[in-house]
Amino acid sequence: MTNPLAQELNAALEGTSVGSLLSDFGKRIYFPKGIIAQSAEAKQKGKTANATIGMTVQNGTPVILEAVHKSAPELSSRELVAYAPTAGLPDLREAWKKEIIKKNPSLKEKSFSLPVLVPGLTAGISYLSDLFLDETKTLIAGNPSWDNYALIAETRRNASFRQFSMFKNGGFHLEAFKETVLDEAKKGEVRLLLNFPQNPSGYSPTVAEAKEIVSFLTGVAASGTKVLVWCDDAYFGLNYEDDIEKQSLFAYLADANENLLAVKIDGPTKEDFVWGFRAGFLTFASKGLTQAHYDAIVKKLMGTIRSSVSCASTPPQTMLLRAFQDENLEAQKKAFRDMLEARYKKVRAFTDSHSSCALEPLPFNSGYFMSFNLFNVNAEKMREVLLENYGIGTIAIDEKTLRVAFSSLDEDKIETVYSAIYKVAEELSRACA
User: Considering the entire predicted model, what is its pTM?
Assistant: First the structure.
């Protein structure tokens, strides 16, 4: 039996793209008026005493062990060891919304939800899968793609995972993309994950490709199909060529059509070089959604968070909020981005000047990675030989795709690594016989 609070949220979302696209779990989930909600109310009104939350408090302040505090003495006990709200620190959520608009100026006059903090972008994808995927649903993504997508969609949620060929003639394979989406649209619903810059290929669409993608998806939605687009922007902003679309597709899809729900999956993990902080954000947008609609879907997301990890870790949120207030932040980030771009250019120069009967680089122009398409070479076998014989670690994405993270290669090692890759591939490939 569906909880009355879930029924209330479902009623609020009835007739919207959100309500139509929810999974079985998405329809059942709600944010309880239990300990967390009652504690929040007591925090505002409990002036005499607040005996609601399971923290040890002295004189109104959480206690903290000196053995813990000495590692971060500039932060207060509240900033270090207190629970954070389920949806994240309010000031940090507001700060991230401003960051999104600054990086995507097309959003300035558009309506979208306040970002919700999740414990890492992977968790964000998992929560979206809870809300929108089940055994009757299909998620579309590019091929090749990050292996965790299939693990989450297929194994955790028992949904179908369908892929389209990502590339043709050195660019995004628009024909394969459109064909796959239109075939899925025959069911009346499309659920699509677009990851740019893409993992594992390191590709972002050009301005022209992005315009075509947005126009096509808007048209599919306008035909009456319910369309859900997840924009996995984990590596957002790490663009190394002038013709790349600089804004997230989310910025253009946010108000494209009432039948199209866009979700932005992003965060400081890669953008601000804080991988282990495990802090990401989910942001929702669709034409015609009101604040009441956004409140309802956010409450369902909060219920998903509450029923899994309860809330994300407080120290990373505190440190990020302080970092966003530092006037030197952008200059510091630019120095690291420039370093990544220099590595990209060296890799680009190498692959542009080398050809092989055994492999070819997939299109790449951004992000942390690039990948090779192998000809008659097993990627796992090649990975093993590189590791055992040359001491070089790479990733076998599938049988014919080898990923190389140039983000983790010092510039002076790039030629050594790539020379070994080409050499081993040609030694192993039957295509070179």
Answer: 0.93
